[in-house]
């Protein structure tokens, strides 16, 4: 299994940046189709591998000494590796989400103050799906084994592919397509995209001059090289915040089994309740708060409050390590998830509209790297402290989120500094702060 994960991680890392650039130059719909098609082929090959394995094990000649059994299992393993490679080569789940976020950014380009709440609705739908999916799979698994849930999953992936091809309209303006898109896409692999967004100002919308405001001036020279402090600070905030998100999902299972004695059914109820609360917060409560508190609140405030609630959640796990407390603070955990869609919105509004695909591809790469590193770090901390102080891992996450708050503050200071810079960048800086929510008086021109 670890080899399959490594293969998918490697192939997706090599292609996700190119597919992000491809979506900026050739359209979001094409990338959504590529990613969905890869997922559909992956599931078909997975079904083929399962069929080979089950046929060899159910036949009378399935003994190890039989020549047909090794060949069937060899064919099944080949199908699994090919399926995983195809899924990673088409960008895997990260490319699909990056295309989806870029699509939403296109739809809200004239009403950027709605971008955070649209991203929150996407996260809410994903949370409800991640809650309903395991429940449905568990019911099918108890009745028909592994084969039927996989068939249902394959059918749903095929329906998704058909719906994208037939119903989804292209959101990218045709006038933004360059004359040589494939040459440009080849130059934008994942590592180049990360370099562009973390160390250069090539794609920034307005900070320091940017593309749309203060092009001829600005504090730091607009599109010239050099680090972009606001994006570096936001990237640090993103990685540290995502560390907390991944840590809660990976370590809590081991912690609850050891400290609370929870079995798989109780853990399932806990995860289902958490996902349901998260979906309700993102789809119902957060849009209501957004409409109610739009004037005094902005994306920076939503992120800051969400990170503070995450700190409080992990601190309560440290000082109240009981099963009743773990269930009672689920709503607090759900409310804290408001930080993540609005953090994406901060990135999106600081980047030029024609580079949104590359931006979300870079964020998906950061998520993938954080997801690969954080379990190793947190598992090491938990295993080292489990006998003396098992809650130490939650304390580490509290400090990580405090670091995320500090990085967010540095990003806010960088935006404010560039907004109050020299005359050449004055208009661009004001426009940037207005788009992020510092000044919420812009006209609403387009409905989503």
UniProtKB/TrEMBL annotation:
The keyword Membrane applies. The chain crosses the membrane at residues 31-55, 75-97, 118-140, 146-168, 231-255, 267-288, 300-320, 393-412. It is found in: Membrane. One of its GO terms (cellular component) is membrane. Keywords: Membrane, Transmembrane, Transmembrane helix. The keyword NAD does not apply. Residues 420-448 are annotated as: Disordered. It is a multi-pass membrane protein. GO terms for molecular function: transmembrane transporter activity. This is Major facilitator superfamily (MFS) profile domain-containing protein. The lineage of its organism: Eukaryota, Sar, Stramenopiles, Ochrophyta, Eustigmatophyceae.
């Amino acid at each position: 299994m670890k080899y399959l994960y490594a293969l998918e991680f490697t192939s997706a890392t090599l292609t996700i940046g190119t597919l992000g650039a491809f979506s900026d130059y050739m359209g979001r719909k094409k990338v959504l189709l590529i990613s969905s098609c890869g997922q559909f082929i992956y599931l078909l090959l997975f079904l083929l591998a399962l069929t080979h394995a089950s046929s060899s094990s159910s036949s009378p000649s399935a003994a190890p000494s039989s020549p047909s059994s090794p060949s069937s299992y060899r064919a099944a393993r080949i199908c699994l590796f090919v399926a995983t490679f195809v899924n990673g080569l088409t960008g895997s789940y990260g490319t699909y989400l990056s295309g989806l976020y870029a699509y939403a950014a296109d739809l809200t380009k004239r009403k950027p103050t709605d971008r955070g709440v649209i991203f929150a609705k996407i996260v809410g739908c994903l949370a409800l799906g991640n809650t309903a999916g395991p429940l449905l799979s568990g019911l099918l698994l108890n009745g028909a084994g592994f084969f039927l849930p996989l068939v249902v999953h394959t059918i749903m992936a095929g329906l998704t592919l058909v719906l994208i091809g037939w119903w989804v309209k292209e959101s990218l303006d045709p006038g933004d397509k360059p004359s040589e898109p494939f040459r440009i896409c080849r130059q934008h692999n994942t590592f180049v995209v990360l370099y562009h967004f973390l160390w250069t100002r090539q794609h920034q919308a307005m900070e320091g001059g940017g593309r749309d405001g203060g092009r001829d001036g600005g504090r730091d020279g607009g599109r010239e090289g050099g680090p972009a402090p606001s994006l570096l600070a936001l990237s640090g905030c993103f990685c540290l915040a995502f560390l907390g998100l991944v840590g809660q999902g990976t370590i809590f299972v081991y912690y609850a089994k050891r400290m609370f004695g929870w079995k798989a059914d109780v853990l399932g109820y806990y995860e289902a309740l958490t996902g349901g609360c998260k979906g309700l917060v993102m789809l119902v409560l957060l849009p209501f708060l957004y409409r109610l508190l739009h004037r005094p609140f902005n994306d920076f405030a939503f992120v800051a409050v969400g990170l503070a609630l995450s700190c409080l959640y992990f601190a309560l796990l440290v000082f109240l390590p009981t099963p009743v407390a773990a269930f009672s603070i689920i709503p607090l955990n759900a409310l804290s998830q408001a930080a993540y869609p609005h953090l994406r919105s901060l990135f999106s509004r600081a980047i030029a509209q024609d580079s949104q695909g590359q931006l979300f591809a870079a964020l998906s790469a950061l998520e993938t790297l954080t997801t690969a590193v954080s379990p190793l770090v947190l598992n090491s901390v938990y295993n080292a402290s489990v006998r003396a102080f098992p809650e130490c891992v939650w304390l580490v996450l509290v400090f990580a989120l405090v670091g995320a708050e500090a990085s967010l503050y540095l990003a806010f200071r960088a935006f404010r500094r560039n907004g109050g810079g020299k005359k050449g960048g004055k208009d661009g800086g004001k426009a940037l702060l207005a788009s992020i929510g510092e000044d919420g008086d812009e006209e609403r021109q387009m409905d989503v």
